[in-house]
Design a protein that fits this description.
The chain has about 260 residues and is of the alpha+beta class. About 25% of the residues lie in helices and about 30% in strands. The protein is built from 8 helices and 9 strands.
Length: about 260
Amino acid sequence: MMTRLRRTGAVLATGSALALGLTACGGDDAAGSVAEAVAQGAATVGLDDCREEAPVDPEAAGVFGADEVRDAYCAAVAFTLDTSFVPGLAHRDAGSRHEPGEFAFAAEHMTPGAAAEWSELVDAALATDSEDDDDDVKIITLFDVYFDSGVADGWVTTPAGGPAAVDVVVTPGHTAVQPGTVAGTLLEVSLTLTANLLVAEADDTVVYAPTAKEITYWMAPGAEPSDPWLVSGWQGEFSTGETSATHPTAPVTVDAPATAAS
């Protein structure tokens, strides 16, 4: 059962079932405390070996260089891992809302134009309770997550003193040249992120919510070879599965219905 589907306002490809390959130790034991949940969780996969796994498109290698394409892919992976599951943003405190400054960290890895747009998107998302007006932000970083099925029901509270997610896996997609944009020639980088979001219950135990995100970035090279690659734009979608009190050890499929280009 799909609980929520988030998508950006950009043009999207047709959605499909997202298989969450969650491999973990610990069996089907109840999560219990945050420490137990973290102990059962698998180590993050995707960053340490990102250069070896980078999908180097021959045309992109011809334009930017193979090493630079690998650098861009690793930058996209690092950005995704740093921004997707932030403990202080994933949950919504009763009677309070997040402040725009809490989202500013993501802009540090964006081009000036993208950073300005990000600020506008955050302001718009925080000014409304409409689910359709915050998708462009949530595809980058989950905030105010709500579940209406499974063990958890209501606004998510992430565990205090622990991560917002475990079993985080990044799977490479593709790279491609994006010529003729306002920002110049960009590198398109796609990847898939899967994880188990941790949800804190009233008794301080935690439950799991399988989450998948498919995202495509447009990466801009720096002015100098030593400058880092920056995010110039993005599009994508994410979905979450039904929450469970036991730690999933088998792949979970989250059905993402088809989305039309907008």
